[in-house]
Write a structure and sequence with these properties.
By secondary structure, the protein is an alpha/beta fold. It is built from 14 helices and five strands.
């Protein structure tokens, strides 16, 4: 009797999985499920400019979010999928494609959530949705959550990125150099193992120097029709969020569009760097800089000794600050990767971190 009941339940479960109403709507190989994912090594790499260029193509459309961070926070989602799949019986887990099948359906739901309302956008059947995040955290989850996606990764010269972040958000040089190195290592590792048909690397300097040529590369990679692209409008794209152009003294960085003029030159951000800072960057991230095709400042034997001393000094300072902050830290249930991105935008000196921890401690005492 129990065997017959088990067989009946199994047949019912299989039929239920095949019923159309139990499938997520829109989960097909239509354009809506072939998103374009725009990632950059870190903020200040030019992802706003790349998105604006692609938005000129009638077969591309923006997400409702300027920056979605789906992949940056994907680890919790993937852990959920693995946990759920581990709870399934072995005889029906393969039919549901295990964790990857569940993750793909969640990815479809994320795309529907990010899409503009039909009343706002109009017909979208022939358009590709663009998701943009100025970080590569979670990039390895792209092919799991969005199996049909095309990933475009934008990188920028390391010193120029660090200097732009310094001017815009006050990034400390040392921490910004290390974070840029970490992100580029992540990108290079991902590119080494991914199918080249689904990921393309673009350098901001090439995009700024010859946008028409680089856009043609991207359009060809995405499989879009180049005849529909208005190349005559490329120079009309305004400047968005520049670290220096269009800002008065003391004015915070903003994303109001500003028309370009001949004085706009985003390729010279680190031209004023002293040689000691260039040597420090070469010591910390020279190999990654070189692998991306950028020039690297040479480090002399004396510079080698000096950088070893700086490694010890900065390492000791970091360790002392971390130990001092341990009693003031608030416990966290999840360690989502989004906090790593937020550290870019709110990156501050160690003293500011101490003040923030003290404020949290005082609030906990008052409560």
């Amino acid at each position: 009797m129990s065997a017959e009941l088990h067989t009946s339940v199994r047949a019912t479960a299989i039929r239920s999985a095949e019923w159309p109403e139990n499938r997520i709507r829109g989960h097909s190989k239509s354009q809506s499920n072939n998103p374009i994912i725009l990632l950059s090594a870190c903020p200040r790499s030019g992802s706003n400019y790349l998105e604006a260029l692609l938005s000129l193509h009638p077969q591309c459309r923006k997400s409702r979010f300027p920056e979605d961070f789906f992949l940056a926070n994907s680890e919790t989602l993937l852990q959920f999928c693995r946990s759920v799949a581990d709870s399934w019986d072995d005889w029906w887990r393969p039919r549901l494609r295990g964790p990857s099948g569940l993750a793909a359906h969640i990815g479809t739901a994320l795309l529907r959530f990010a899409d503009l309302d039909p009343e706002e956008q109009g017909p979208v059947s022939d358009c590709r949705l663009m998701l943009r995040s100025p970080t590569t955290e979670g990039i390895t989850a792209a092919t799991t959550l969005f199996p049909n996606a095309h990933v475009v990764v934008l990188v920028r010269d390391g010193p120029a990125t660090v200097e732009s972040g310094r001017r815009s958000f006050g990034w400390p040089y040392e921490e910004a150099m290390l974070a840029w190195r970490h992100s580029v290592r992540h990108i290079l590792s991902f590119l080494a193992g991914v199918d080249g048909r689904h990921c393309l690397l673009i350098r901001f300097e090439d995009l700024a120097a010859d946008p028409a040529r680089e856009v043609t590369r991207v359009i060809d990679f995405l499989g879009l029709d180049p005849m529909l692209y208005p190349f005559d409008r490329v120079d009309e794209i305004p400047v968005l969020g520049s670290s220096s152009f269009g800002r008065s003294n003391g004015e915070r960085v903003h994303w109001d569009p500003i028309p370009k003029d001949p004085s706009f030159d985003p390729l010279t951000r680190a031209r004023s760097w002293p040689r000691r800072r260039l040597r420090r960057f070469a010591w910390l991230a020279g190999e990654e800089q070189r692998r991306l095709g950028y020039p690297v400042h040479p480090v002399s034997p004396i510079g080698y000794v000096g950088n070893v001393v700086l490694d010890v000094v900065y390492g000791s300072c970091r360790a002392a600050i971390q130990i001092a902050l341990l009693p003031l830290r608030e416990p966290r249930l999840f360690s989502d990767r989004r906090r790593r991105y937020l550290s870019w935008r709110k990156m501050s000196r160690p003293g500011d971190a101490v003040q923030c921890a003290l404020r949290n401690w005082r609030r906990s005492r008052e409560a």
